[in-house]
Amino acid sequence: MPPLLILIDQQQGIRAPHLGPRNHPDAERRMADLLAAWRQARAPLLHVRHLSRSPSSVFWPGQTGVEFQPALAPLPGEPVFDKQVPDAFANSGLERWLHQRGIASLLICGVASENSVEATARSAGNLDFTTWVAEDACYTFAKRDFAGQPRSAEEVHAMAMANLHGEYATVTSSAAMLERLRTTGSPC
After folding, report:
1. Which helix (H) or strand (E) holds 32?
2. To 5 degrees, how large is the angle CA 140–CA 181–CA 69?
3. Which of 23, 78, 143, 182 would staple 153 via disulfide (CB 3.0–4.6 Å)?
């Protein structure tokens, strides 16, 4: 069985200009390709939606930023898990839901690389799920490091992927996962 595809925080608010420069401008297209392939294969998938606790957040409930981007929105019947912290496993029932369905492997994509993607992949690895991250179907934004040094979105993303690869997950590309799905019927 293919891994369960998890799309994280593909909501309209993540496109807010004030979030600044980002990497992987084609990440949404990569996510859409994965989503289409998983749907066509009738493989398991789910969507994660962030509902912020902060009124200043782009994901504050009750405003358009919390709504899914149309191209990546769930279809009727596709599961949606809500979270209020970066980790999709925290207080969401996701772990139990996966175990009840016998799902042991996950493919994660979404935003932000060093935030919700990394937090969710770390938990998945720690909970003993076989975990992949499609790095080109993830993105983040430029930010300052702890010492105040400006870091590009590419640097922030690369460090997040380095933090995950080999310890919590296998970091790969969307093309590699699509090719494995096409040739073997399962990217596992």
Report:
1. helix 27-41
2. 35
3. 23
Q: What is the amino acid identity at position 148?
A: G
Structure tokens at 116: 């919700």
Across the beta sheet with 4-8, the strand order is 80-83, 45-50, 4-8, 105-111, 130-139, 170-172
Alpha helices by DSSP H, 42-173: 94-100, 118-126, 153-164
Q: CB–CB of 3/41 below 8 Å?
A: no
Coil, helix or strand at residue 34: helix
Domains, the chain, with CATH or none: 4-184 (3.40.50.850)
Residue 137, Cα to own-chain centre: how many angstroms?
8
Angle at 6 between CA 165 and CA 29, to 5 degrees: 90
Contact 129, 164 (CB under 8 A): no
pTM for the model: 0.95
Query: In this predicted model, what pLDDT tens digit does every residue of 103-122 receive, in sequence order?
Result: 999 999 999 999 999 999 99
Helices (H) and strands (E) in the chain, counts: 5, 8
